[in-house]
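Dear colleague,

As promised, here are the two records you asked about, laid out in our usual form so they can be pasted straight into your sheet.

NAME FIELD: protein one
SEQUENCE, THEN STRUCTURE:
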Amino acid sequence: MLAHRSFLLLTAAILAGCSAQILPVGSTDDGGPPADASDAGLLPVDAATPSTFTAAQVSAARSNCSLPHGPIDGYVTPDELRAHVAGAWLLCGTTQFEDLSGIFTADGNWNALVADGKGGLLEGQGVTNQASFQVILLDDAGTTCAPVLDSSSTPGGCILDFRTAAGGISQFSVSFETSPRRMLVGSGTDWYVALQP
């Protein structure tokens, strides 16, 4: 929890010292209008991503948590970041944020995955289990995120602005790996693995 708060304070300090450009989901990388301006509210989970996962699927994903880290899977544009984050993610390890496993959709929505009582996960409902997100460019003049070059590089000039339906706000960077597909939230230890249907 302390590392998460420290990251949020660091992010706030960085944002206070930098100019930023917020790109609504569906906008073009040059800041143009969203593809569908009426798409302002929370939407159902993308039909291509399942909203339930069996105990076997959760167990298979959890086994990927302990595998060696794979190659970096970088992104350059906000659209690439949106594509990378889209899908179902299982939080690895034991932290206070175990309820943050969830489904990110390419259209900028997130739904928590909650225990189904049988070892599986299902899409949570209600204001504490739904959120929206958008990509923030940290450079007003920029149209790309600084690429992640190697394991010692930090994520570039894009962060996710995450807002829960209950009013909570978080901003964080994300990095990705392949083999297995993994996501690191912030610069801490919150690793996620992809849940496969």
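NAME FIELD: protein two
SEQUENCE, THEN STRUCTURE:
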Amino acid sequence: MWLITLGLLAIGIVITWRVRVREHRAPTSAPDQGELLQLRVQRVSDAFDHANNAFADATTLMEELRQELATQEAAHRQLVAEAEHQRTLINMDRAEAEAVQAIILSHTQTDARRQRVREWSFFGAGLLLAVPINILSDLIGPK
């Protein structure tokens, strides 16, 4: 918006400068008052034409800016919706990951218990078998 304002201000300054430069030029011959009046009317008419053209350009530019802003707002809304969707997926993935982790931990703990029981049973079986085997070897072996 400020860009349009600066453009219009620049156009106004240029038009004012051109009008003043033309008025201050030294006339080569003394024109009559009717011609001077007609020249001034033409200058004012040209200035109004330039101003109208500038306003028309500004209106076109504003419409283009509005369309661009609407496009960017739509893209922003789409990105926000996508981010929300991704956040939902992340939360779902966390819940699933926590469930899988709980299952793995329970299996790991169960497997650890089974392993301990198996080790103690082998130790117990070794003790139970070692004593009779030792006694049997003493009976069979040389005396």
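A couple of things worth noting about protein two: The chain is about 90% helix and 0% strand. The CA atoms of residues 6 and 20 lie 21 Å apart.

Best,
R.
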